[in-house]
Specification:
The complex is a heterodimer. By secondary structure, chain A is an all-alpha fold. Helix content of chain A is 76%, strand content 0%. The longest helix of chain A is centred in the last third of the chain and has 33 residues. Chain A starts with a helix and ends in a 15-residue tail after the last helix. The mean pLDDT of chain A is 84. The relative contact order of chain B is 0.09. The longest helix of chain B is centred in the middle third of the chain and has 25 residues. Chain B is mainly alpha-helical. The chains are: A mainly alpha, B mainly alpha. At the A-B interface, helix 1, helix 2 and helix 4 of A face helix 1, helix 2, helix 3, helix 4 and helix 5 of B.
Chain lengths: 96, 149
Amino acid sequence: MIYVLALVILLIAYLTAVSSKDLIRLLVSLELMFGAVFLTLIPLFTAAPETALGIAIVAIFVSSCELLILIAALILFDREKKSVLVDSVVVGGEER
Amino acid sequence: MGAVLLALAVFTVLFALGVLLTRDNFYAVVFMSATMILIAALYAVFQLQAVSILMIFIFVGAIGMVTIVLAATYRREAERQFSPRWAVFTAVAAFSAAYYLLTQHASQATAAGFELTLTPDLLLLVSSMAALIILVALSALRLMGGVSS
């Protein structure tokens, strides 16, 4: 049941990500994806609890670091483009 | 225990759907924080309180609060951010994968609980990771010009 729950949350997060029109919603969907990933760690605690705890600690801290960087990038993007809309994201050299 | 798990799972999915269906980003972040709290509660049900507290402190207390502030700062006209075409593909993928997982009985985890002890190695790991997150936060502040060299 844990795997199914994680899968459902992951798919909801994917759907939120592809439907999002601004970068804030994209960030929220990413956090939801991390939540789904953490759920899949629960069954690992039955096989190797200490290893699973180590993996969980590293995953929680590293993903939060990634989110912090993304938040900083989002603020910098807003300073540059004066917008947080997904439409204003362009690849290198692309004009809009 | 099974009923508690089921109730938590249902509420987790409902709050996650709230993130998808709400028009306002601010409420989306609130729903996301509630989802993370419920995921941490699932850990607590399995007697993994250490992980549960860590998740609540970091993902709700730190990242969640920063995201709430961000969503409140960049609040704009609320509009529906939901793509029906992608929803069809997602629903098909969810049903097929859930059917496979439920018929294969992949998860053998029970709600019996786990015995965890915080060894010195794990404490060292937590300290190192806390140092890492402080370093990253300072780097992010420096990147944004919040800290002068």
